[in-house]
Amino acid sequence: MEQQQKQQDPHQGGVSERAVGAFTAIFIFFVGVVMIVDNYKLGAGWSKDGPESGYFPLRVGAILCIACVVVLLQTLYAKNRSTKTFVTWERLKLVLKVLLPTIAYVLAIQLIGIYVASALFIGAFMRAMDKSSWLKVLTISIGVSLALFWMFEVQFMVPLPKGPLEALFGY
Amino acid sequence: MEDLGSLFHGFAVALTWYNIGMMAVGIILGIIVGVLPGLGGPNGVAILLPLTFTMSPTSAIIMLSCLYWGTLFAGAITSILFNIPGETHSVATTFDGYPLAHQGRAGEALTSAFTGSFIGAFVGVLLITFLAPLVAKFALEFGPPEFFAVYLLTFSSFIGTGKDPFKTIIAMMLGFGLAAIGMDAVSGELRMTFGWSELLRGVAFLIVVIGLFGLGEILVSMEEGLAFEGKSAKINMKVVLQTWKKLPKYWLTLIRSSIIGCWMGITPGGATAASFMGYGVAKRFSKNGDKFGTGELEGVIAPETAAHAAGTAALLPMLALGIPGSATAAVLLGGLMIWGLQPGPLLFVEQKDFVWGLIASMYLSNIAGLIIVLSTVPLFAAILRIPFSIIAPIIIVVCAIGAYTVHSAMLDIWFMVAFGIVGYFLKKLDYPLAPLVLSVVLGRRTETSFRQAMLGSKGALDVFWSNALVGTITTLALIMLFWPVVSFAWSKLGQMRAHAIAAKRA
After folding, report:
1. Which residues of chain B make contact with A21, given a CB cutoff of 8 A?
2. Which helix (H) or strand (E) segment is B169 a member of?
3. By the CB < 8 Å criterion, does B163 face chain A?
4. What do you get for the CA distance between the two ends of chain A, in Å?
């Protein structure tokens, strides 16, 4: 979500901390507004038998909004406001290199179960980042998955999401 | 002494083979978790918590608290050998620890750090043994207003002592908001679920912790591009004994740091603040203060002792009052509730085995921890040399599993990823995460005590000043809350007076 709001600064090649800080404060402000509205609808006042359900969260939301306004003003106008870069495009790429595969991994858990997905994820990650040898990749990725399987399904009897491969072996 | 009797009973509980095994497992896992980037005390405990649901609460808390001691010990390893603080509380240890390792004196630095930690923790445990039962006895008289006042004091002192009070407030209020999602325990009404039935059970604090501290940390360290270049860790019996011979010289530093640590642990200043303060105070009072930063053993001992004393003492308010003094203690407190124990002063009455078993285990596990950590440093240092491309995906896999096992819900893994992204932004923008965790864990209890207090007083706020006890705590809380304003006004007043005097003289 933050990505869309980036103010481009061609000189530094990144996003300024002020922009991200301000956007985050505005975003959280709206979280506060949602809290106030939702709890107001629920009833945030006083009923016969004491404070209503929204009583406490509404006040929390209000404090959140006020604090966000202060932080927003500080980020934008304070004397010692930050002039640093939040993240350069180069480094953002590194972050996305972890984040996007992670999202794909979670999606894969849903489809093919956590053990196969984990083996693929670890293997792909090693291959992509380090160009590790296939032998090393296969040993570690499959080894970790098998170890996890043994620990959770056999040892602790905690069932984790499983897919077609595990079904083949009767799990 | 009734308490000593209970303590010996505790030793009997803790000294079973099963529990000793749990201690060893906990400490070793703790050191691994503490050494690895992206994992730390709070989310190490959070990930393992679901696995303890089937254990007896006593064994579970022994294992998880040992994991916590392990992470405290581990901080020193990465700081001294790699100049990378594995945990924030070991930042101060790098100042003198790494220069020492650079001079080839890593063994000495590690030994003194571990021994200092051990002594700090020992003082912390002694304090818990003798003070916690008294505090609990005192707190048995507490009603809802008193409890709310104590919660208020905890939260206020975070705001008052934090770097940026408004960011602390935001983090804290977000935590309260998250805690409020789901079914309201008092009225049964649904709050902030937006018609989404999956949100009915609320957002588990474990998911929040694993996301913020686990994935969030990985994203941050990925961006910083970690490259580990460590010094070799030569440590043997000879070095250990030689270093121990030097330590008595630093008795004053040890005592000072222990006291600082205990104080910062009980008041929620936390281990990080304690370690910096321990270092700073030692620097000011030491004969060799000006050499600090170039490789003084004293500069390693001071912060480590304080950090470990604080980490241990943080469990005192958690046990006696149900208020955690640190993020990890907050997760442990959440664990108590999941195991079906009611945190608070009643624990000392109703769960004697649990409380005293835990306290006895702290004595044993710190001795065991010292032995394990001294004998296995090279092994753990080797973990850090494993490339990030292997460590990172494994940590993410472990985080995903940890998130799933809380409720066996797929959605929780997605939430974990979302909190990871949130954690990345909050961390980079200097929002403190500890208050957020604290309020997610304590949010409901705080709210309930507030509403019960309001119920009793029919909405009049003066219930928080209705007797001397609750009035004192509330007033103290408000002073802490406005501490930045108070201290600012105080210094202004001082300046004005100085000016006035100067003006008179002139």
Report:
1. 429
2. helix B165-180
3. no
4. 39
